[in-house]
Amino acid sequence: MATEIKLTRKDFMSDQTVRWCPGCGDYAILATVQKTLPRLGIPKEKFVFVSGIGCSSRFPYYMDTYGIHSIHGRAPTLATGIKLSNPDLSVWVITGDGDALSIGGNHILHAGRRNVDLNILLFNNRIYGLTKGQLSPTSPVGTRTKSSPYGSIERPLYPVEVALASGATFVARTIDVLQKDMGEIMYQAALHKGLAFIEIMQNCVIFNNGAWFDYSDRSKRAENDLFLEPGKPMVFGKNKDKGLVLDEEQGGFRVVEIGDEYSIEDIVIHDPTSLENAFLLSQLTYPMPLGIIYQVTKPTYCEGMWGQIQQVKAQKGEGNLRELYYSADTWEVVAEEEEIKAEVKGTVEASLDEAYIDEVLGTEPVQVDLAEQLAGLTLHDLNPKPPITINPSALMDHALSLMKEHNIGALLVVSPDRHLMGIITEADVVDRIAGQDIDLHQVTVGEFMTKEPIGLPLYASVLEAVHFMTQRRFRHLPVVDENLHPVGVLSSRDLVEFLIKHL
Amino acid sequence: MDLLAGLKQEPVTMMDLSDYCTADIGATVQEVLNQMQAHHCRHVLITKEGKLAGIFTDRDVLLKVADNKDALGQPISELMTPEPWTLSKAATAADALALMARHHIRNVPIVEEDRSIVGNFTHLSVLRFLAEQFPDISIGSYPVYPRRFSRRRHGG
Predict the structure, then answer these.
(1) Banded model confidence at residue A356, pLDDT cuts 50, 70, 90
(2) How far is B126 from chain A (nearest CA, A)?
(3) What is the pLDDT at residue A359?
(4) Which of A349, A425, A462 to mutate to test the interface with B (most CBs of B within 10 A)?
(5) Does the residue A2 lie in any domain?
(6) Of A290, A393, B7, B51, which one's alpha carbon is 20 to 30 angstroms from that of A61?
(7) Are the Cβ atoms of B126 and A496 closer than 8 angstroms?
């Protein structure tokens, strides 16, 4: 059914200059990814690469796919969101030992725990490279760096161990120098449903050169690397003459030579579905297990989430966000009504009759704490009155007539293109007009207005307005939209009347 | 904190009642205006022998004085509002608010039994009470778009 998609490595190469140091192991990983993706038969636009911060996290720039160079340590979380909202995508997380295990230590755990269908590539160079060489959480004990001048005293984390513990369902390890193996593992990871985690041992040529020398160097790797193959005995060495046996006493794997004492029959068979086997392998450094260490199938996060949504929809119908939003807890504040009424009755001097007090104060129980309600209100909720506006070149005479006509204390002065330029209030009239030797037909609003008044946006909180009115003694606050066009005037009366309405 | 209960229990005398100045009933409109300008005062309680006799506000200035120079020489008693609504010291904030709503007024002078002045309950009294309930109100809790501040005190 699906039409054959023929992509090549070139299709995944972006036009960006790669800014890694010459000789960096990252180049090999980039090339391998670019070579592996075409094998998957997935259209280019279905790939997303999400990275955190670090050298490795520049990766998305160099891939001609969708990608996000995101927040330090948070790439797995961002990727979870992407995968969840669009499960069709093939989502890849590019991270490093610092980004994933230090800054994002918590985020990587939860991606694993949830078994999100992601492919996480952790570039492990055992150093902070981008910040010029400090200790990373995978640096071995004794590592001397700028931040550990006398050698690290910290037990390093083993990424594979962390991934297994968190619940990842595909855990593998590879090394930058073995591109063919790396490509195959990436291919398997991409096919895997669930969280695929690949630790890639990578050389930082500048700040931690040779960190993996024992496993990457041509002369040494045959002796030190254990290439895992499912269903095959775990043998290694140039002549395949060494292998792993289970040491019941020590409780772990032990290296033995195949010969007189041990035969190939004694060597443990690699079973990627065994978590025990995987944990034992994760703690080995000699030999270094490379390949797929663990792989099982378990329900993924997306399946669970979408399944649950479908199930609930079938039971309850489509959701309604608005209803949900307004269904928040409310509670009754039991007003001490009797007492208060009595007090009111006994204290009012002016002729306030009881019926009126009841009318104003109301007799129904209070539903919501007014203070809380106020704190959550915006100017929009108070529905400020539309402004009466005037042109700055209008005569003061006209301004006074307008204020009288509408019986208001403030006019907003707006330019012909509707920008708020000033405000003229009864305070201005008292202070600078009344009693002065001024011919109101000769002076303009522009001369007397307060220029560039504070304009609050509709989404400003009511408390903010209270602040301005009390601290700066404003009685009128212009309310403006995002273009600085006035949309209303909030007066102290509006606020007081709101309070009265709720009394 | 229950704001409603607070308003109903708060005696007006505990609130900020300072939003006023006073003038004698014998003063002219010009004299009262001078005083309003000098003290940036918006509400003037007019007294006769120290007792409240009337009230004169900036709204009166706007409506009756601003474009009428003849008014300046008149005695204030001609233009003030005589016998304004008042409350006693025993009233609560809720009482004062109810009175404001009922008569659509912005000032409720608080007086002793002999009508000597205790203070003036205004919108500012209410808003200051509110502000006290939210001591952590701070500017900038949201991205204000036009971050502009008036250089003068009389912004609006």
Answers:
(1) low
(2) 7
(3) 65
(4) A349
(5) no
(6) A290
(7) yes
The answer to whether the Cβ–Cβ distance between B95 and A472 falls below 8 Å is no
Number of folded domains that form chain A: 2
Measured between CB atoms, does B110 come within 8 Å of chain A?
Answer: no
Q: What is the mean pLDDT of chain B?
A: 83
Q: Give contacts of B126 with chain A, Cβ < 8 Å.
A: 495-496, 499
Q: How many CB atoms lie within 10 A of CB B104?
A: 8
Partners of B39 on chain A (C-beta within 8 Å) are: none
Q: Report the residue of chain A nearest B98, measured CA to CA.
A: A360
Chosen for mutation from A426, A443, A471, A485 (greatest number of chain B CBs closer than 10 Å) is A426
Q: Is the bond preceding A22 in cis, omega lying within 30 degrees of 0? A: no
- Res A2: pLDDT: 52
Q: Cβ–Cβ of A349/B148 closer than 8 Å?
A: no
* pLDDT the model gives residue A466: 85
A474/B155 Cβ within 8 A: yes
Distance (Å, rounded) from C-alpha B96 to C-alpha A144?
75
The arithmetic mean of pLDDT across residues B24-47, rounded, is: 92
Q: Look at A334 and A440; give whichever has higher pLDDT.
A: A440
Closest-CA residue of A relative to B65 is A434
The CATH code of the domain at B3-133 is 3.10.580.10
**Residues in chain A closer than 8 A to B98 (CB atoms):** 352, 356-357, 360-361, 500, 503
Q: Report ipTM for this prediction.
A: 0.83
Specify the amino acid at residue A415: S
Contact A349 B90 (CB under 8 A): yes
Of B92, B123, B134, the CB nearest to A496: B123
- Residues A336-343: what's their mean pLDDT? 49
H or E, element range at A480? strand A476-480
d(CA A377, CA B130) in angstroms, rounded, equals 14
Cα–Cα distance between A146 and A135 in angstroms, integer?
Answer: 8
Compute the average pLDDT of residues A149-156.
Answer: 95
Assess if residue A359 is contained within a domain.
no
Q: Domain end: A302, A325, A344, which one?
A: A302
In a domain, A354, yes or no: no
More confident residue, A431 or A305: A305
By mean pLDDT, which of A293-297, A371-375, A398-402, A437-441 is the weakest?
Answer: A371-375
Averaged pLDDT, B80-96: 91
Strand ranges of the sheet holding A410-414, from the earlier edge strand across to the other edge: A389-390, A410-414, A420-425, A450-451
pLDDT at residue A41, rounded to an integer? 92
The range of the structural domain enclosing residue A141 comes to: 20-211+298-302
Q: What pLDDT was estimated at residue A44?
A: 94
- Residue A70 resides in a domain: yes
HEC letters along A36-49: HHHHHCCCHHHEEE
The contacts of residue A45 (CB under 8 Å, 6+ apart) are: A65, A66
CA distance A296 to chain B (A): 49
Give the pLDDT confidence score for residue B52 in this predicted structure.
Answer: 94
Q: What is the CATH number of the domain that holds A415?
A: 3.10.580.10
Nearest-neighbour CA in chain A from B27: distance (Å): 15
The string of pLDDT tens digits covering residues A214-240 is 999 988 988 999 999 999 999 999 999
Longest dimension (CA), chain A: 120
| Average pLDDT value for residue range A88-117 | 96
Angle at CA of residue B5, ends B3 and B9, nearest 5°: 115
Q: With beta carbons under 8 A apart, name residues in chain B contacting A350.
A: 85-87, 99
Among chain A residues, CA nearest to B148: A454
Q: Could you tell me how far CA B48 lies from the centroid of its own chain?
A: 19
Q: How far is B38 from chain A (nearest CA, A)?
A: 8
User: Chain A contact for B1, CB < 8 A?
Assistant: yes
Taking only the tens place, the pLDDT of each residue in B112-139 is: 999 999 999 999 898 888 888 776 655 4
